[in-house]
Design a protein that fits this description.
Protein name: Large ribosomal subunit protein bL31B
Structural class: alpha+beta
GO biological process, one term: translation
Keywords: Ribonucleoprotein, Ribosomal protein
Strand content: 25-35%
Subunit structure: Part of the 50S ribosomal subunit.
Distance between the termini: 56 Å
InterPro entries: Ribosomal_bL28/bL31-like_sf, Ribosomal_bL31, Ribosomal_bL31_B, Ribosomal_bL31_sf
């Protein structure tokens, strides 16, 4: 990598305030706020709207769509399409 053209890559804390979950990782993103982490060091913190702790896919609260019911309702409303199409 060429020196001087890339942003600094360092430790950052990402915090999901809705779930009360935070994790330390490395990133080029930086935040204006700082936080004291579990190891006693201070790191920049970035507040995020959603993370794996609060996303419905990861928490198991995702809704499954009833596709069979939707198809049957469509066919009742508009009829089955016949022919070779």
């Amino acid at each position: 990598m060429k020196p001087g053209i890339h942003p600094p890559y360092g430790p950052v804390v990402f915090r999901d305030r809705a779930a009360g979950y935070a994790f330390l990782t490395r990133s080029t993103a930086t935040g204006d706020k700082i936080v004291v982490w579990e190891d006693g060091n201070t790191y920049p913190v970035i507040d995020v709207e959603i993370s794996s702790a609060s996303h419905p896919f990861y928490t198991g609260t995702a809704r499954v769509l009833d596709t069979a019911g939707r198809v049957e309702r469509f066919e009742r409303r508009y009829g089955k399409r016949g022919g070779g199409r």
